[in-house]
């Protein structure tokens, strides 16, 4: 290990080392290749998604290597990458695991606030990331409203859907025809003569 390596930043790493790997692995898995999942510029070693131990273990190994063999600069590059994942997840639904983003955002934000106690210019250099994280954390703490359902306007039933009255025989008017009704002849009784009968 070089004697010129500054070690003061390592005092800020215990919580990120403990909390970030699982949260960042969940963010990477849920973001599906969003802009924040690509490594930032610089020699930051990416986590191996094919690691048989799983994404969280791979992320943990990456963090450990940064802490044991990296520098303050490489560590801050890693945290800038995490910041991109967090802000992308806060940008809208479906952009990443919101619970994981909130945890990671709070951890990195606390870390960046504590940089003020270290010598150097890193606190000033992370001002933009702090502002972005503060906004993202506020957004992620706000419950997402349920998608409102559009009320359906009742429509008049179509003639094919309308209930049908029971079938009844149709009453039709009988045709009016004039018929001559013939009456049956009156039967004769004894002793009664018809007109015109002669005896």
Describe the 3D structure.
This protein is an all-alpha fold and 199 residues long. Helices cover 44% and strands 0% of the residues. The chain contains six helices and no strands. It has helices at 14-31, 55-69, 72-90, 98-114, 122-125, 127-141. Helix 1 runs antiparallel to helix 4. The longest helix is centred in the middle third of the chain and has 19 residues, at 72-90. 26% of the residues are buried.
Which structural class is indicated by helix and strand composition?
A: mainly alpha
Low-confidence stretches are 33-50
**Helix-strand string:** HHHHHH
Share of helix among residues? 40-55%
The whole-number mean of residue pLDDT values reads 76
Shape: globular
Count the helices. How many?
6
Proportion in β-strands: under 5%
For the secondary structure, the number of strands is: 0
Note the gap between the termini. Answer: 167 Å
Rg over C-alpha atoms, rounded to the nearest angstrom? 46 Å
Q: Which secondary structure elements does this structure contain, and how are they paired or packed?
A:
Elements: H1 14-31, H2 55-69, H3 72-90, H4 98-114, H5 122-125, H6 127-141
Helix pairs in contact: 1-2, 1-3, 1-4, 3-4, 3-6, 4-6
């Amino acid at each position: 290990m070089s004697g010129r390596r500054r070690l003061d930043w390592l005092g800020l790493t215990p919580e990120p080392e403990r909390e970030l790997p699982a949260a960042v692995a969940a963010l990477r898995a849920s973001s599906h290749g969003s802009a924040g999942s690509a490594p930032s510029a610089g020699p930051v070693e990416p986590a191996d998604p094919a690691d048989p131990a799983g994404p969280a273990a791979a992320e943990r190994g990456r963090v450990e290597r940064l802490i044991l063999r990296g520098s303050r600069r490489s560590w801050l590059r890693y945290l800038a990458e995490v910041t991109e994942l967090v802000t992308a997840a806060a940008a809208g639904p479906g952009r990443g695991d919101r619970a994981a983003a909130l945890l990671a955002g709070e951890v990195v934000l606390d870390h960046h606030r504590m940089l003020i106690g270290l010598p150097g210019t890193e606190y000033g250099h992370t001002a933009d990331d702090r502002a972005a994280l503060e906004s993202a954390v506020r957004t992620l703490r706000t419950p997402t409203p349920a998608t409102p359902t559009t009320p359906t306007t009742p429509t008049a039933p179509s003639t094919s859907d309308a209930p049908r009255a029971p079938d009844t025989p149709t009453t039709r008017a009988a045709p009016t025809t004039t018929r001559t009704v013939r009456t049956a002849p009156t039967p004769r009784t004894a002793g009664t003569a018809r007109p015109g009968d002669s005896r």
